[in-house]
Design brief:
Blueprint: E1 5-10, H1 19-30, E2 35-37, E3 48-54, E4 69-72, H2 78-81, E5 91-92, H3 97-115, H4 118-126, E6 142-146, H5 150-161, E7 165-170, E8 179-183, H6 188-193, E9 197-200, H7 214-217, E10 230-233, H8 242-250, E11 256-259, E12 279-281, H9 291-306
Parallel strand pairs: 1-2, 1-3, 3-4, 4-5, 6-7, 6-9, 7-8, 9-10, 10-11, 11-12
Helix pairs in contact: 1-9, 3-5
The structure holds NADP nicotinamide-adenine-dinucleotide phosphate and glyoxylic acid.
NADP nicotinamide-adenine-dinucleotide phosphate binds next to α3 and α5.
Length: 321
């Protein structure tokens, strides 16, 4: 009997999400199992047992009556869960070393940029000005991570090893050596009050939507060595209120921000965020999923699943992440 096919539903482009790149990788990992690109190939929908998706159109998965599991090609599943017609099958998200290390690189790089006053040094270079400022040590800076999941915990350890004072906030407590844990809504204020650089690695859920807003920014520490609070958001754009970010930068509630994700992506060309001197922007590429690493991850999970072993990193539909 032919093996159940894998269907690819990728809202892609020419970059990391080019569907043909993913199809070639899946074909090489899945051997004699058919891989079909829903946008391009002709196939029998009943032959499809698995789907690998990135931002699929709402309702698109209803086309497959014998679907057994869906693999989201990223860590965040908010786009998939916003589809009320999502079928009653397990949804597996990406959680692997490759993606995790990429996010830690991003968080460490931007934390260091703010800590080492890189925006000021860049401006000095533009003016050919040799004007070193006092530089404080990492141990003088309090970093707070919203979301102590797979990504938050890894980034926290890396920052801790550089000497920063690190704390994390999450739904449930996560004890770790040298990293203070704050859990639940009741502990958010205390966590914010000790934070100079706030890193957001939360998933987007009904509970977290819009959490990065003026009332939250106003609770961040104002007595730190940086001269004002800094926010780094690499979670999801729906976590932030961009009008609040701009207004808080302009009135000094925030000193600077790094944003990888936006309320609407791609960020509109006329967004004032592009030109704001205290905003650093990246195009939602803090931690790309690499087709080589993830095709192998999905292929191994299918082998396990068909052998009766449990799927890993299955999303809890009730929690929404
Ligand atoms: P994860 O392992 O599921 O961790 C999520 C963390 O958020 C957990 O610590 C969880 O608390 C916490 N959390 C969720 N809801 C909360 C709430 N209402 N209050 C307090 N804490 C809450 O996820 P992950 O793998 O670390 O990924 C996190 C997010 O990063 C993804 O969902 C995605 O949106 C984003 N991401 C972005 C990129 C990019 O390129 N920009 C790449 C990958 C991922 P508990 O530990 O108590 O459950
Ligand atoms: C990217 O944004 C991801 O969720 O993996």
């Amino acid at each position: 009997m032919a093996k159940g096919a894998l269907a690819l539903l990728i809202r892609g482009g020419t970059d990391n999400w080019a569907p043909e790149r993913w199809k070639a990788r899946f074909e090489s990992e899945l051997g004699d199992r058919a891989v079909v690109s829903v946008a391009e190939d002709r196939f029998d929908p009943r032959a499809v047992h698995y789907a690998a998706v990135w931002k699929p159109d709402a309702g698109a998965l209803r086309a497959f009556p014998d679907l057994k599991a869906v693999f989201n090609l990223g860590a965040g599943v908010d786009a998939v869960l916003s589809d009320p017609t999502f079928p009653q099958v397990p949804l597996v998200r990406v959680s692997d070393e490759d993606l995790t290390s990429r996010m830690t690189e991003y968080v460490v790089m931007h934390t260091l940029m703010h800590h080492r006053q890189q925006a000021y040094l860049d401006a000095c270079q533009q003016r050919r000005e040799w004007a070193p400022r006092l530089q404080w040590p990492a141990k003088a800076v309090r970093v707070g991570i919203l979301g102590m999941g797979v990504l938050g915990r890894h980034a926290a350890q890396a920052l801790r090893s550089l000497g920063f004072q690190v704390a994390g906030w999450s739904r449930t407590a996560h004890a770790a050596d040298g990293i203070d844990s704050y859990a639940g809504p009741d502990r958010l204020a205390a966590f914010l009050a000790r934070t100079d650089i706030l890193v957001c690695l939360l998933p987007l859920t009904p509970q977290t939507r819009g959490i990065l807003c003026r009332p939250l920014f106003a609770q961040l520490a104002r007595d730190g060595v940086l001269g004002g609070p800094v926010v780094i958001n690499a979670g999801r754009g729906g976590l932030q209120i961009e009008d609040d970010i701009l207004a808080c930068l302009d009135d000094g509630t925030l000193k600077a921000v790094t944003l990888d994700v936006f309320e609407r992506e791609p960020l509109e060309v006329d967004s004032p965020l592009w030109r704001h001197p205290a905003v650093r922007i990246s195009p939602h590429n803090a931690a790309d999923t690499d087709p080589d690493a993830i095709a192998a991850y999905v292929a191994a999970q299918i082998v396990d699943f068909e052998a009766g072993r449990p799927l890993r990193n299955v999303v809890d539909m009730g929690r929404g992440y």
